[in-house]
Amino acid sequence: MHKGRHFLLSDIFMHESAIELSHVEYTWPGNTHRTLNIDALSLKRGERLFVAGPSGSGKSTLLSLVGGIILPSQGEISVLGTSFKTMSSARRDRFRVDHIGFIFQQFNLIPYLSVLENVMLPCRFSAVRRQGATEQASSVEESAKGLLDELGLDRSLWRRQASQLSVGQQQRVAAARALIGKPALIIADEPTSALDALHQEDFIGLLMNECARFSTALIFVSHDERLSKHFHNRLVLAVESGDIS
Predict the structure, then answer these.
(1) What whole-number distance in Å separates Cα of residue 176 and Cα of residue 151?
(2) Pick the CATH number of 9-244 from 3.40.980.10, 3.40.640.10, 3.40.50.300, 3.30.420.40
(3) What is the pLDDT of residues 45-71, one digit of tens each?
């Protein structure tokens, strides 16, 4: 690819595969033991993967590798048909904002921005996400409103600052922000840890529906294995090992 080229939606939708890992190892600098060791892992477009394992088994490391934040010590990773191996850090950053949505454990909303402003934020940084958003609606704002409606957030809250919302409401805003612009992959790191069982089930159902609507692949990390029933595959990590079932 030519230097500086953007990865367009048309490029990404040509690839059935969401992620492919082959003989991937990662050892954090200064450590003597591997943090992560996965022989093979594959996830197709629209598939959902549940990732579990004890602390130190490499769950967050896996998400950082798939997101292109770090590179493996050994092995190959392909995300949406694209290898990060020869890409600069800046190009990986661009690819990530264009094609991957993140839902964090603490949500990472901008507290002084409104709900709508938070949801639209990826489209401020990515022309690809703006393109995806306006394929769904007449404008980015209308796309954001549509997602918030789908996720059941009351319209009276849309102009409020994110800091004024409850935990459950913030979670839905974080999901809408991740989904806007139809990213091909969603990475979710313990997004339900602050919720009770009822709200967990509600949120998972909404997230599954939205991912299915856009044929979005989902990698979901959680310590609560009861949630794994909602997913096509389950990856259980242990220290220095990984097995898929």
Answers:
(1) 7
(2) 3.40.50.300
(3) 999 999 999 988 999 999 999 999 999
